[in-house]
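Example pasted here:
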Amino acid sequence: TGAAPQKQPIDITLGEPVPAPHAAQPPRRSVSVAREEMDEYVSLSDAPAVAENLDDMRRTRLLRAVACGLSAVLLFYLGIAGRTGAVPPMLSPQENPLVFLLVNAVLLAAAALISLSAIITGVLGLWGEPSTDSFCAVAVLAALAQNMAWLFAPAQFDAAASTLYAPVAALLLCANAVGKWMQMNVVCRNFDLISASDEQAAAFVLPREQMVRRLCSGLAEEEPVVLVSRRTALVKDFLAQSFSVRLNDAMAQKLSWVMAAGAVACAIVAGGKGQGVFGAMGALAAAACLAAPLACTLVYAVPARLMQSYAARHKAVIPGPSAVNTLQYVNTVLLSAEDLFPVGSVQLHGIKTFEKERIDLAILYAASVLESNCETLRDIFMAILQNDKKLLLPVEGVKQEAGYGFTAWVDHNRIILGNRAMMARHDIELPSMDYENRYTKNGARAAIYLAVAGKLYGMFLVSYLPNRKAASILEQLTGSGTSVLIRSSDFNVTSELVAATYGVPRNMVKVLTQTECDLLESEGVLIHSGSCASFLGGLRAALCAAQGEHMARLVQAAAIILSAILGVVLAFAAGLGALSLGAVLGYQLAWCVLTLALPVLKKP
């Protein structure tokens, strides 16, 4: 606590099963958040304490926003009404300038004291760890300097000729606190979602480039970035991810230099034009308050809130800035065959047995193997048995040969179940292709062969139909240039089958082999319920948030640079010291609305 924050890469580590009550607990790691420290979420039992800490942080930011807002309202009242003489005589700048200046200084100092952590972080951010707090810190210090300078010569203060910019500085502090409060709301709501369930899935980006290229060979992606997911009981390092450093804060540091340099240049111009110390200090404060963006934290908070709202509807959570930064580069996702061919998509058209073998036994053999091992084919066989698992035969030693089929011992019989290639791999004698084509309608249907004790026993004829929701998902993914990897336990599902069934380009889909599936192992950046809709809904929320935030940051950067130039131009032309509060407020609000409109337009 008290040390300068340090940037480091943060990932969610997927948790192991929750330890027994008396088992040794992992060491608790603390997370530093704006000079506040709290314990990391490492166990389901920690959830109430972590939630309480997060609520305290949220309330603190809300109280800070309210206090700074009240200070800004009072200061604007004094600044606008004081110029027209519509304030009580005791506070009138014409009759009691010292009291007027003291009240302004005290109100602004109170707002700055309440926001002291932001001021300190902002000042340090000018040359240390970058922070968007630097914008309001520079403006507040400039406004305070202007106000304190006038306290040394209150008799010379003329409210009609000189403007105090303390109201604008207080408003900047209020907006800064509002943005941080909104971001804490997002963190709290995300934590409520992930702590409400002990069964969830986490998506992660595969890190090893060589492995990724191997998985994506045959796809159109030149530089694939693959997003996959797996089940987990507990998401670790959630808080570290939620408060991770934004990679684009480095730009905020450079822009704060531009803003500060512009304000100093205006002060030098005003002093050089003979306006004296007070004119120079007024130009310094005016230029800083004009260029400091009102949406310095809202530019992150608004996209994050829109992202959280959309993701929550899909039961997904994107923990923090580093996760968004990672997800925005994803161009390939991993789905399961069950996502593309859910219940009802696979139809059984007929059963053919050889050597007068029993059809009922053929069904029992196939259903017993597939019930626990193949999501897409399981239901068509279990439906014949009216979903009565008591009818299934005992199964042992099931082994999958991805893309081919299964081997197992069923009721003490050696069973081989799969496609034609599977039978050939195990030297099972098969009928001719002409014979098969008569039943499969020349490939319109898929043949599933069953061999028992080394002899061909039966053949099942199935077909695969497109699912409306899956078709919509594939259309959205391929339409946005995102390729699809498919993990399948169904040996009939191939890249060609998926492309033909859903009418998508063959080079946009690929069904993985067993060897490729075994390579999938890493850490995560997105938490979801495990369903395809939740997985892709979270990804879409992150992509839209990244796009909206990027556009908003560009507009904000343009606003800061143009405002710095405008300040210098006005300093040369007419001076900045007497620029009205109404004009500065209108200017700030206009840029703020424009900046925040872009994330709203890009919301998912």
